[in-house]
Amino acid sequence: MAIKVLEINTVCQGGSVGRITVDICRTLERNGDDCLIAYGRRGAPEGVPAFRFGTNISMGLHVLSTFLKGEHGFASERQTRKLIEKIKEYDPDVIQLHNVHGFVLQVELLFAYLKKAGKPVVWTLHDCWPYTGHCAFYDYNGCSCWKDGCMSCHEYRKTYPYALFRNNAARNFARKRAAFTAVPDLTIVMPSAWLADQVLDSFLRDYPVEVIPNGIDRSVFQPRESDLRRQLGLEGKFVVLGVANVWERRKGLVYFQKLAESLPDDFRIVLIGLDKKQRHSLPANVIGLGKTENAAELATYYTMADVFVNATLEDNFPTTNLEALACGTPVITFDTGGSPESLDESCGRVAPKGDLTALREALLAEKEAPHGKEACLRRAELYGKNERFQEYVTLYHELADRLPVRR
Fold first, then answer.
1. Largest Cα–Cα separation, the chain
2. Residues near 27 by Cβ (< 8 Å), separated by ≥ 6?
3. What HEC string does 16-50 produce?
4. Which among 22, 11, 6 has a CA at the least distance from the CA of 215?
5. Got the DSSP string for 69-85?
6. What percent of the chain has pLDDT over 70?
7. pTM of this structure
């Protein structure tokens, strides 16, 4: 029997989680089910059933609330009530949450509704924000204060969502714990085994946990011929590629800058996603490019590169690794978070976290004994979006089948 699923995310367009949200929706539609995406900011791809509950003004006010009061996730009340009314009108069989942070929702209001809605809820954690008092990621800082209530947060000014004037981490932690626990029918999904292990130490530990790795569109991310090497003056060079949506601290930009000082002359580094300030501070042998929202264009860069390096100091299950493999490009990453989980010895190398010498040695080894394109493509087959996101559809139907009354 067909079901209705409502997905909630910060965005519907742009970024890896936006793409995942849309891909799950399209998987549902191919299955004969109905889907609606509710999102807070930016736009929606053409043809995707979507409802925007947020506004630019409400987002701006939420940013101010975060910066001034340190209360991220506790503004945007009017927009949250608008979302709740839409949920009631749409009357889904299953509610799928993705990111509920990002300056768009009052999470206490939303979860108060979910606790009495009588609907199965699936919540995919794409980062650690749901069970900390502030941070979306913490492991790269060696922080464990989230285990005891974020009583001694030192990162609130330096880490997203950037509470510049007030440390409210401990109070936020208590409010989140009260809001997010005791939802009658909530299943938590993690893209990585690493994050699943982290959640077992959090106040979310009592919920059922599933691990469903991220998937990518292999009709887009596939080997693509281009003239990029000639255009960028990279003919005869060993090209090292780095990609990030935002090159924040944990993404490891400093490691690329240091590598540029020590790699042989026939190496060149290309970085995508940099802002203007970052591009101006690069060494001469690093090519810095801005962000691209064009996935096909990004695939040409992955294909052009000899190796993709993910120098992240913490990540859940980065889709950039999958995208590179799907373009036939081997991956080198630090042993951090869930980043190594998509690799095996046939398609990549793993260096100890933060070890610049080991990262450099892995690059030199890759040049001398490169991993084969075909092995990378075979590994990428495990992460096709149709197969991975069909696991969500199966889960939704299992949960909906438990409802006392079905349409």
1. 68
2. 385, 386, 389, 390, 392, 393
3. HHHHHHHHHHHHHHHCCCEEEEEEEECCCCCCCCE
4. 22
5. H--TTB--HHHHHHHHH
6. 99
7. 0.89
